[in-house]
Amino acid sequence: IVLSRLSVEDSIVIGVGHVDETDLSSNALPVQIDLSGEPNTLQLLERVEHAVAVAAARLSVKVDGNTIPAEKTDIAPYQAAFYSHNGLSQSPADYVSVECDLEVHLLQDKENAAVSIYYATALFNKETVERYAGYLKAVLANMVANGGHSVTTFDIMSPVEKTLLLETWNKTATEFPADHCIHQLFEQRVEKAPNNVAVIHGEHVLTYLELNCRANGLARQFVEADPKAPVERQAFIAKDSAAVLLVTDVKTEIPSLLNLPVLRIDADNLPSLEINVGSLRPSTSAQDTAYIMYTSGSTGLPKGVMVSHCGIARLVINNGFTDIGPDDSVAFSTNPSFDPSTFDVWAALVNGARMVIIDNDTYLDAHRLAEALSHYQ
C-alpha cells in the first residue's frame, strides 16, 4: 500500500523472501500485487496470498541463462523487498548491505515482532526512510481499525506532515493591488518615472510618458489575433468576440473574410509625442475583462477566455516567483496571441522595467537571441 501511494501505481512488484534459523539465505521471489478496484484489507490480503502462491509455483521453472539478453541481466526485477524472519533476534547494526533499494524485514518469534528497514544510502536519507516507516505504521493501524474500508482511503500522513504540505508550504497568498485595473497600475508608473525607458524595439525607444500618450490615442479593449494564423481562425475570433474594428500596421494584408473596418497605424509617422495626451478614465473595475484570449481550438472550435484586470495584476505583481523592478529588462518574445505574452508585457510595464521587443527572426535564431539578451540585460 505504501509503495502504491509513493509510486501512484496500482500494480506493484516486490521481492518476497523467507528466512529461518536453518536457512539464512535471503533470496526473494518477485511478486506482482494488484491494488486496482479499491480492495479492502481482507481482499488485498487474499490477492497477496494468491500472488505469492503463483510466484512460488514458478520456483521449479528452469531458465536457460543463454536465453536472457546480456543487456537485461543487470536489471533488478524489483526495487523493494519484504523478508520474514522466524526465530531470529534483532540487534543494532551500523551498516548492513542491501540487495535492492529498499528492504523491509519482519523479525518475529512466538511472543514478539519487530520491523527493520534497510535502504540504499545513495538513494535515500534517514529522514525519508523514517517517513516511509511512519506510513507503514499508519497502514497497519488502518488495516486493524478500518479493515472493511478500501485501502485507498487509508490516511497515512502524520498530522505534522499534513500541516506541512497543506498549510505551511501552501501559504502562497501575497498582497497585490487587486482593486486596480491594469492601465491604472501602468499610469502609476508613468507618474512616478515618466522619463524612464518603457519599450525598446531595435533602435526605437519609448519612455513611459511617450508610451502612455500613444496608448491613450488608441485606447480600446482588444483581442489578440495572430496575422499568421489560418484565415478561418481569424474570422472565427472576430465574429465570436463581436469585434467592431481591426487595428493593424500599414503592411499587413487583411483577408476579405474578416469583413471588418480596418484602422492602420503607421508607427513611424505618428503625431508628435510632445503633445501629452491625457490618460482616459474609463468606468472599469479590476474584475472587468481586460482582454479575451483564444485557445488553439485543437479539441474543436477555439474558446475565448476572458482575463480580468486583477488576474493580470496577480500574475505580475508580488507573485512569489520573480521580482521585477525598474532596473530590469523583460524580453517580449512571445506571440501576442499566446497567453504567456501577458507576462512579457505587463511584468515590465507595471513594475517600472523595460520591455524589450524581440522580433521573430531573432527569437528563432539561438545565436542572435543570445546576443540580444546579453545586449539588453
Automatic annotation (TrEMBL):
Residues 223-376 form the AMP-dependent synthetase/ligase domain. Coiled coil: none annotated. Residues 93-166 form the Condensation domain. Keywords: Phosphopantetheine, Phosphoprotein. One of its GO terms (cellular component) is cytosol. One of its GO terms (biological process) is amino acid activation for nonribosomal peptide biosynthetic process. Gene3D superfamilies: 3.40.50.980, Nonribosomal peptide synthetase, condensation domain. InterPro entries: AMP-binding (IPR020459), AMP-binding_CS (IPR020845), AMP-dep_synth/lig_dom (IPR000873), Condensation_dom (IPR001242). GO terms for molecular function: catalytic activity; phosphopantetheine binding. This is AMP-dependent synthetase/ligase domain-containing protein. The keyword Phosphoprotein applies.
